[in-house]
Amino acid sequence: MARVIHVEIHGQQYSVRSDLDAQYIAELAGYLDERMRSAARELASADPLRIAIVAALNITDELYRARAESRGLEGHIQARTEAIERLVDAVLEDARARIAVNE
């Protein structure tokens, strides 16, 4: 059931309607607040919209890098899984051949 959670981001109060856990929403808001403060330190302009756009670009960059890293990890896991599968197949093939010889 959706409820309203009050958060502060970059000095502004916001009411967020969500069915997510209130603590989670607070963590998200805190993260965004920190990213906006970081962007504000980097910019000469104090324009809140410009700060929000730079923060959004930084967060999007983090997301894209995390996705790329995840895909790389998934590829590594897939390759390892295939290698293990080939080893198991070879062992089973060898076991079948030994059984056939002993029969």
Report on this structure.
The protein is of the alpha+beta class and 103 residues long. It has one domain. The protein contains two helices and two strands; from the N terminus they run E-E-H-H. The chain has helices spanning 22-42, 48-102, and strands at residues 3-9, 12-18. Strands 1-2 form a two-stranded antiparallel sheet. A hairpin with a 2-residue loop joins strand 1 (3-9) and strand 2 (12-18). The longest helix has 55 residues, at 48-102. It is elongated. The model has no long low-confidence stretch (mean pLDDT 88).
Order of adjacent strands in the largest pleated sheet: 1-2
Tally of structural domains = 1
Percent of residues in beta strands: 5-15%
Helicity range of the residues?
over 70%
Give a brief outline of the structure.
This protein is an alpha+beta fold and 103 residues long.
Secondary-structure topology with pairs:
Elements: E1 3-9, E2 12-18, H1 22-42, H2 48-102
Antiparallel strand pairs: 1-2
Helix pairs in contact: 1-2
Features:
two-stranded antiparallel ribbon; alpha+beta; 103 residues; elongated
